[in-house]
Write a structure and sequence with these properties.
By secondary structure, the chain is of the alpha+beta class. The protein has helices at residues 67-76, 123-128, 131-140, 173-181, 187-194, 201-215, and strands spanning 2-10, 14-19, 22-26, 31-32, 35-39, 42-43, 61-65, 89-92, 104-107, 110-117, 145-151, 153-156, 160-165.
Amino acid sequence: MVGKIVGLAIGEPKEMAIGRNRTMTTGIMKQQVPKAMLTQHGFVNDASHDLKHHGGVDRTVCIYPAEHYVRWNEQFGVTLPDAAFGENLTVTGLLEKDVCIGDVFRVGGAIIQVTEARNPCNTIGKRNELSELFKEVRNTGYTGYLCRTIEVGEIKLGDELICLERPDDLVTVAFCHDKILHGKGTVDDLIRILEVEALAERYRFDVETRLINLVDGIVL
């Protein structure tokens, strides 16, 4: 399984207008660069603002499939900007239905591992001035996914993502969205997700909480 970087973006948190005389601080406004250095804590000169819900060593790289831009541009009659979803890497060939939690990729001089099915926030709609976009991203599960750094190194625009390793139990990003984001998971489904060793710590906590509530008969 091979993908290719068609967009590489980084950026520090900054103020973003979200309406008349209103602003918010966010890390979603990233700028395209030809190359960037990936460390154990993320890209140099890149950061999240809301550290409770974003960032951390399990979430150093955000990836978004380039194929989805075609759908959104056609559906909303717009041309979305580069890195419209706050992603670091916009890639071809690696959709949520094909990528598994635990997949390890070599990309440029770095190695990364998929850790989490991204749970989008409504900042996506605010950044693109399309409130319905956030809802559609959630409904479709076209959210992208998050990765941790296994080996630091430089990444360049145009680099390929080459899959080096896959876990034995294939739990795709799309499967996680169906069972967690869309709330369709059974006890067995949630246990299957939790058995993936590479799962991000915060995502694991969310799944464990959902499992406890499901066993106790609480519907989320």
